[in-house]
Amino acid sequence: MAEENSADVGLIGLAVMGQNLALNMADHGFKVSVYNRTSKVTKDFIDANPNTPGGLVGCENLSDFLAAVKTPRKIVMLVKAGPAVDMVAKQLIEAGLEKEDILVDCGNSQWTDTIRREKEYSDRCRFFGSGVSGGEIGARFGPSLMPGGNGEAWKLLEPIWTAIAAKVDAETGKPIETATPGHPVTGGVACSAYIGENGAGHYVKMIHNGIEYIDMQLIGEAYFLLRNLLQVTAEKLSQIFGRWNEGDLDSYLIEITADILKQRDPEHPEAFLVDYILDSAEQKGTGKWTSINALDLGIPTNSIAEAVFARCLSALKSEREAASRHLTGPVYRYDGDRNELIKAVHDALYCSKICAYAQGFQLMRAAEAEYGWKLDFASIASIWRGGCIIRARFLQKITDAYTRDSRLVNLLLDPYFKEQIQNNQTRWRSVVALAAQAGVAAPAFMSALAYYDGYRSAQLPANLLQAQRDYFGAHTYERIDQPRGVHCHLDWSKPDRPQIKIAH
Ligand code: 6PG
What's the Cα-to-Cα distance from 351 to each of 225, 252, 330, 485, rounded to whole Å? Predict the structure, then answer.
């Protein structure tokens, strides 16, 4: 049996993410008690990692696992989001988890579940939610961490979170990616910051993923447009993305795209793997949750939702194949300047990306008011600079924007981003027009442009819409010559009668 009360932290759930997070903690000198429901997994993990700086303690049952950890215990759960979280929490409570112990859910849980769980387990433990982004490598060498929950519990977790998080250079904001097993990064600024009460950490992780969806969709559209219009190989496209990664678009997702595109297919070495991958996307739901939340709060994150729908449309593979034999589109051959098109797609991607982030931050602004959080947007952008899937050079600029003005209404109004779109929108518009002309689906580019044009329009056609609502359903309308809140109704069948005015 493990020495009692000796481990700094306990970690339950030894799938790859759990193993890597445990090793990351151990590399930073924390002694970690680990448990997996299949004991063989625990044993193999301990056997494979005998000499970590902090030390790993493998436990075969939950009482030993809890007994091994110093009190008040810090127990980190890496289990599948959903019912498994409650199941494991209840097992731990039964095994002796105590009221002062902190139980941290590091999965992609729904933030509403985290709020519910914090309340439900409040007399048995301090339930805490932390977003973790960065996939397997992030977990091992430095993820971006979005902790949310009880402030006192956070004080106890903070040293571990700060140590294991990704680090960025204090001056440039660039990720420091030099960690190797047993040799973690020292110095730099940690990509971890307390987000707020109850479900705030998981909420911000959900927004991260919503942005991840649109970031990926935009890259997909750039790839698809260039491939279709220029008729070039994946390898050539890899070079283009590689070049883009040296400029404003410098980001993890662009970098891996360049890598992916040049990968040959193991089965057909003369071909590229990407060309053999089925174009039917899957999803676990975080983009959908972001979009549902945006609809609930009435915030136009149309590009994020468009990215979710694009995955849904892609998944209708057999239906699309059938439709492709029946439905016609334009016959188009691009004969313009090829380099100009590459530049234009770059700018379309860049401008659309700015809009996508503007939408994500706009949603968080609405959420903090609705759910009573106090979100620090500069801090959120700063912890996304390293470790996470959406890490990008660009996030330093967002950090700067919210540092200049913490109450910025919309990222598009920040002087830097305003100028970026001003300078690059001509080519963005040309790409959207070209996609429509050529019949190439580019929903994210198009919806981002529609968002931009809609947001900058003082006048939209909703006047007519309001009139229609009043006409068929007496739903009333406000007038431009009356104060807001004065609702009017016209009896459209007898328009000579005076309007009814109701002040709310
Ligand atoms: C991260 C990722 C991670 C996961 C996605 C995948 O931040 O590390 O977002 O959480 O890879 O949730 O989501 P989909 O399966 O929905 O694409």
Answer: 16, 18, 26, 36
For residues 497 and 504, give the distance between their C-alpha atoms in angstroms, rounded to a whole number: 22
Q: How far is the CA of 302 from the centre of ligand 1 (A)?
A: 20
- Residue ranges of domains in the chain, CATH in brackets: 9-198 (3.40.50.720), 202-455 (1.10.1040.10), 462-503 (1.20.5)
At 491, give phi and psi (nearest 5°). Answer: -80, 95
| Annotated catalytic residue, options 205, 262, 288, 397 | 205
* Alpha-carbon span 463 to 473, nearest angstrom: 15
What is the three-state SS of 110-124?
Answer: CHHHHHHHHHHCCCC
Interval 198-235: pLDDT, tens: 999 999 999 999 999 999 999 999 999 999 999 999 99
Between the alpha carbon of residue 115 and those of residues 56, 120, 195, the distances in Å are 31, 9, 14
CA 16–ligand 1 middle distance (angstroms): 14
**Residue 1 confidence (pLDDT) above 60:** no
What is the edge-to-edge ordering of all strands in the sheet holding 167-168? Answer: 175-176, 167-168, 189-190
Please work out whether the CB of residue 212 comes within 6 Å of at least one atom of ligand 1: yes
For this structure, is 155 an active site residue?
no
Q: How far is it, in rounded angstroms, from Cα 248 to Cα 155?
A: 37
Position 178 scores a pLDDT of 85
Amino acid identity of residue 303, one-letter, is S
Decide if 242 contacts 325 (C-beta within 8 A): no
Which one is catalytic: 31, 118, 167, 212? 212
Q: Is the CB of 108 under 6 A from ligand 1?
A: yes
Q: How many Å apart are CA 311 and CA 281, to the nearest integer?
A: 5
Query: Residue 425 in 3-state DSSP?
Result: helix
Query: Could you identify the atom of ligand 1 that is nearest to the CA of residue 213?
Result: 17
Residue of minimum CA distance from atom 14 in ligand 1? 283
Q: In terms of pTM, does the model score above 0.90? A: yes
Residue found under tokens 């940690």: 190
Residue 135 beta carbon below 6 angstroms from any ligand 1 atom: yes
Cβ atoms of 197 and 149 within 8 Å: the answer is: yes
212 is an active site residue: yes
Q: How far is the CA of 314 from the centre of ligand 1 (A)?
A: 18
Tallying the residues shown for the chain, one arrives at 504
Cα-to-centroid distance, 202 and ligand 1 (Å): 13
